[in-house]
């Protein structure tokens, strides 16, 4: 088990951090989140070009860097801490599903575009309760030598402008994976302004069947990836409020000197320590111990999802009234944290999955 | 096979041949102490006592790697070394750090061989978290110190030969600046040891009374009025030894662990399942954090005050799991026949006829949140030293001890 970053992983973290502090200075997230596509396309392209992040986990044979899940976790943690708007997480999760399917043809056709940063992709679940593990309501049918999709995927991350959708659908009583460029995309209003979602309606949308069956592992990997972003949001929230507690004065003292504040922050630090440990373990298991991955991934979501929201909530509260204002960034972290906690479905699903695995 | 693997293999062989099969006793009788001393002497002869301690004082002069290898192997055995844990974990390392050459030569080897048992005498009824507010006084009389006062929460004092004793030697200066560390012979005239019955009904600790006890100045550790620096060293070793589990073993028998509860809970009940999953999440998250801390230490990143986070989390988990165990077991967890059978004659607590164990765990649970620094003190440490938050304003830093409010008397009791 490896829970400490290597010096190469620390270098990667530093490179991403430096890039983000240069391209996403304070205030920039707010500027881009409400305009146009909701993200800075030029910065996104530079991130993929200069740092090669879009190809990070894409194997070298498809034009990527072939890095591991521990490296992906390091990157996602930094992107989460910066509240980076845009389709990086959506594309990454769809990439993991495509990769794990083992369909070499689909990989060859789609992954190079993703690695180059040209293609934005997203996974489009459609189960009744919104869980990525639930049976999809979207159905597939054979048509003219190919397939067509029908039904609604109600919550698709960055779905409005995704070039490629990876869609689980029912075909002949089984869940199969499809890729499509189709579907009517209707943008949704989202609590988290830094990350958009869309409702996608398929009406005889032409789609390509993806061979293979690696969805269970892909969803575990998605759990780890989302947990890494949650770790970043948690860390950044705690860092921000810790700094404020050291400069804000009330009743003649820094607020961080009051035990009412200090002890809350200490508990938040404990959550950070455990969250980091849980995420590093899950990312290690993803690469090195596949047998441990299902429980490690469910734990990563069950622990980190909750911890991230609790810390983001407490961080907002400790600011006092300023934390409730639109101008302050506290609510952006709070809203991102809750949106991430329910992204893969209701959080109880992770606890139930974990119960089935460890009891 | 590497040298370390070979070391580890031989350690395991020795443990298998020498570690007794019975459980360690937290409060051994005289025979138990004699057996523990004999075992410790064998362990020292075999080279497994004081693995990282300097050779010239009776240690082995090896590295943390060998120490960890032995500890890892020892985890599977139950070693009767509890009575030595205070000496090995706190007093001995303090003497090594702060003692004179003569003191090290005199005290360390008997400690490592189990010939002398040590206890630690810091806390008082009026000075727990705020230990620098202690009132046990030592007054100089020629080449000796004369000590009056009372200490409390002292483990293994009833068996101890020596005690590391923090005293007030100058009440006219601020409290941290008037303390001196002495080593007291526990058999000296004027030392009275009384068992202190705690909320479990057992006597894990003692209270110690000092009535004109005379200690030679040669047994002073550190400078006169420099005792606080010595105490800080001891407390640092204390936290490390709690984290490292010095003298601790037999954890696998914990009746309220996740594994124990899972084995006897109704796993078909969705509420029970969710409660057990919560316990799993908290146990696993903490165990991964502890693993990460030890991997960081190995990689040269010193955890420092972050160990306080691990200790705080362990205290909270300990309370949570005892609470949960009792709730899961129901009435049989708090009422049972004297012989350990459950009241209904069956096995309603499902714990194999040892029904008192959950009740005992429930009574014992607060100890982890109080000993070695309360949860509130841990949160102060995390806030101040890990997060770098501004300290609380102090009203006691620059005031002579004799003018301070101390104890719960609001200024009534001064010496």
From TrEMBL, chain A:
CC cofactor: FAD
Keywords: FAD, Flavoprotein, Oxidoreductase
Keyword Flavoprotein: yes
Ranges of residues in domain Acyl-CoA dehydrogenase/oxidase C-terminal: 218-356
Molecular function terms, GO-annotated: acyl-CoA dehydrogenase activity; flavin adenine dinucleotide binding
One matching Pfam family: Acyl-CoA_dh_N
Keyword Flavoprotein attributed: yes
Residues annotated as domain Acyl-CoA dehydrogenase/oxidase N-terminal: 6-117
UniProt similarity note: Belongs to the acyl-CoA dehydrogenase family.
Record-given protein name: Acyl-CoA dehydrogenase
Organism: Bailinhaonella thermotolerans
UniProtKB/TrEMBL annotation, chain B:
Region ranges (Disordered): 392-415
The keyword Nucleus is annotated on this UniProt entry: no
GO molecular function: flavin adenine dinucleotide binding; oxidoreductase activity, acting on the CH-CH group of donors
Organism: Bailinhaonella thermotolerans
Acyl-CoA dehydrogenase/oxidase N-terminal domain ranges (all copies): 3-115
Keyword Oxidoreductase: yes
Record protein name field: Dehydrogenase
Family statement drawn from the similarity comment of this UniProt entry: Belongs to the acyl-CoA dehydrogenase family.
Keywords linked to the UniProt accession: FAD, Flavoprotein, Oxidoreductase
Cellular compartments per GO CC: plasma membrane
Entries under SUPFAM superfamilies matching the protein: Acyl-CoA dehydrogenase C-terminal domain-like, Acyl-CoA dehydrogenase NM domain-like
Residues in Acyl-CoA oxidase/dehydrogenase middle domain copies: 119-213
Needed co-factor(s): FAD
UniProt xrefs under InterPro entries: Acyl-CoA_Oxase/DH_mid-dom (IPR006091), Acyl-CoA_Oxase/DH_mid-dom_sf (IPR046373), AcylCo_DH-like_C (IPR036250), AcylCo_DH/oxidase_C (IPR009075), AcylCoA_DH/ox_N (IPR013786), AcylCoA_DH/ox_N_sf (IPR037069), AcylCoA_DH/oxidase_NM_dom_sf (IPR009100), Mycobact_Acyl-CoA_DH (IPR052161)
Ranges for domain Acyl-CoA dehydrogenase/oxidase C-terminal: 225-387
């Amino acid at each position: 088990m490896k829970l400490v970053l290597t010096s190469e992983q620390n270098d990667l973290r530093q490179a991403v951090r430096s890039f983000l502090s240069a391209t996403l200075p304070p205030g920039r997230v707010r500027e881009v989140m409400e305009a146009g596509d909701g993200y800075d396309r030029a910065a996104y392209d530079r991130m993929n070009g200069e740092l090669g992040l879009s190809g990070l986990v894409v194997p070298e044979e498809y034009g990527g860097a072939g890095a591991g899940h521990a490296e992906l976790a390091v990157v996602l943690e930094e992107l989460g801490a910066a509240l980076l708007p845009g389709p990086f997480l959506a594309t990454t999760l769809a990439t993991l599903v495509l990769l794990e399917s083992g369909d070499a043809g689909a990989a060859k056709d789609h992954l190079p575009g993703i690695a180059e940063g040209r293609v934005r992709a997203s996974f489009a679940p459609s189960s009744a309760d919104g869980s990525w593990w639930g049976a999809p309501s979207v159905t597939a049918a054979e048509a003219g030598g190919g397939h067509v999709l029908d039904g609604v995927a109600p919550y698709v991350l960055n779905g409005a402008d995704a070039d490629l959708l990876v869609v689980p659908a029912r075909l002949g009583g089984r869940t199969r994976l499809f890729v499509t460029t189709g579907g009517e995309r209707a943008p949704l209003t989202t609590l988290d302004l830094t990350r958009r979602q869309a409702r996608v309606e398929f009406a005889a949308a032409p789609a390509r069947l993806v061979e293979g069956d690696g969805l269970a592992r892909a969803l575990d990997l998605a759990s780890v990836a989302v947990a890494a972003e949650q770790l970043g949001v948690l860390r950044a929230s705690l860092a921000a409020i810790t700094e404020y507690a050291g400069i804000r004065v009330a009743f003649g003292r820094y607020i961080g000197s009051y035990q009412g504040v200090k002890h809350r922050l200490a508990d938040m630090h404990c959550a950070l320590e455990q969250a980091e440990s849980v995420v590093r373990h899950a990312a290690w298991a993803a690469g090195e111990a596949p047998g441990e991955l299902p429980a490690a991934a469910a734990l990563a979501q069950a622990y980190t999802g909750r911890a991230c929201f609790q810390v983001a909530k407490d961080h907002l509260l400790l600011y006092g009234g300023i934390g409730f204002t639109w101008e302050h960034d506290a609510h952006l972290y709070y809203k991102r944290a809750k949106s991430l906690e329910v992204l893969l479905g209701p959080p109880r699903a992770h606890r139930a999955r974990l119960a089935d695995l460890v009891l | 096979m590497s040298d370390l693997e070979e070391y580890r293999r031989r350690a395991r062989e020795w443990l298998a041949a020498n570690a007794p099969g019975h459980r360690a006793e937290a409060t051994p009788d005289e025979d138990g102490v004699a057996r523990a001393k004999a075992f410790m002497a064998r362990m020292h002869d075999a080279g497994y006592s004081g693995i990282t301690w300097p050779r010239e004082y009776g240690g082995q002069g090896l590295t943390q790697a060998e120490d960890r290898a032995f500890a890892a192997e020892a985890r599977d055995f139950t070693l009767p070394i509890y009575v030595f844990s205070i000496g090995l974990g706190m007093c001995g390392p303090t003497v090594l750090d702060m003692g004179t050459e003569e003191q090290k030569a005199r005290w360390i080897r008997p400690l490592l061989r189990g010939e002398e048992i040590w206890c630690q005498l810091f806390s008082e009824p009026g000075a727990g978290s705020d230990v620098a507010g202690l009132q046990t006084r030592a007054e100089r009389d020629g080449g000796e110190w004369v000590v009056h006062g009372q200490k409390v929460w002292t483990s293994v004092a009833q068996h101890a030969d020596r005690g590391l004793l923090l005293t007030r030697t100058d009440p006219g200066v601020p409290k941290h600046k008037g303390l001196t560390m002495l080593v007291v012979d526990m058999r000296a005239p004027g030392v009275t040891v009384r068992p202190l019955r705690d909320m479990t009904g057992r006597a894990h600790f003692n209270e110690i009374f000092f009535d004109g006890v005379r200690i030679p100045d040669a047994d002073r550790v550190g400078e006169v009025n420099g005792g606080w620096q010595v105490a800080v060293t001891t407390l640092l070793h204390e936290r490390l030894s709690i984290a490292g589990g010095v003298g601790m073993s037999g954890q696998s028998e914990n009746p309220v662990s996740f594994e124990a509860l899972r084995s006897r809970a109704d796993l078909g009940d969705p509420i029970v399942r969710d409660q057990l999953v919560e316990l799993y999440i908290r146990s696993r998250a903490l165990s991964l954090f502890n693993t990460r801390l030890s991997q960081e230490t190995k990689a040269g990143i010193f955890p420092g005050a972050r160990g306080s986070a691990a200790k705080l989390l362990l205290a909270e988990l300990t309370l949570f799991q005892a609470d949960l165990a009792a709730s899961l077991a129901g009435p049989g967890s708090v009422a049972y026949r004297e012989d350990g059978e459950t009241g209904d004659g069956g096995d309603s607590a499902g714990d194999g006829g040892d029904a008192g164990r959950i009740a005992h765990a429930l009574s014992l649970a607060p100890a982890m949140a109080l000993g070695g620094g309360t949860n509130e003190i841990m949160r102060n440490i995390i806030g101040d030293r890990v997060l770098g938050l501004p300290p609380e304003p102090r009203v006691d830093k620059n005031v002579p001890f004799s003018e301070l409010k101390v104890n719960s008397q609001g200024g009534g009791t001064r010496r």
